[in-house]
Amino acid sequence: MKLPILTIVQMAVFAAIIAICAQIQIPFVSGVPFTLQTTGVILSGLILGPKKGTMAVVVYVLLGAAGVPVFAGFSSGIGIISGYTGGFILSFPLLAFVSGIASTKKQLLLWPVFVSIGVAANLTLGMVWFSFVTGNTLPASFTMVVLPFLITSLLQIIASISLGRSLRYAISKSRITI
What we know:
This protein is an all-alpha fold.
């Protein structure tokens, strides 16, 4: 598949934005840090759309898997992906895709619905993975890695949608094409 240079640049920029957002973190007792990584993933979908946004996130995940320190705390490698946070990372492309679908909807009231579904899927898949890797029950895993993130996830949804709408509006008024 041959991609236009603009698409490659857009994907690289958003992979870099996600990597930067991953470094803005607050550690939690469970070992799963709160980061702005999710915000970067959501914005990738909202700004680039479902296809390019998902590809940008896949590039980010592949960079991390290959050893480029793009994950939280400048970590990387297959060990991180196969570790207890791997489910969150591996479900990021799904989150970007669902957020990208939101961006195709003309009714802006649908954006929160789609983004919330994507975040719920990300948290659920991350929790199931965490449970599997750690041997915890699903209720214990929910308490450890979902419950503490519900308020911050809501805040990230609100901030991402607000920023995404503003950026899409600014882009539409500029000479930049997405």
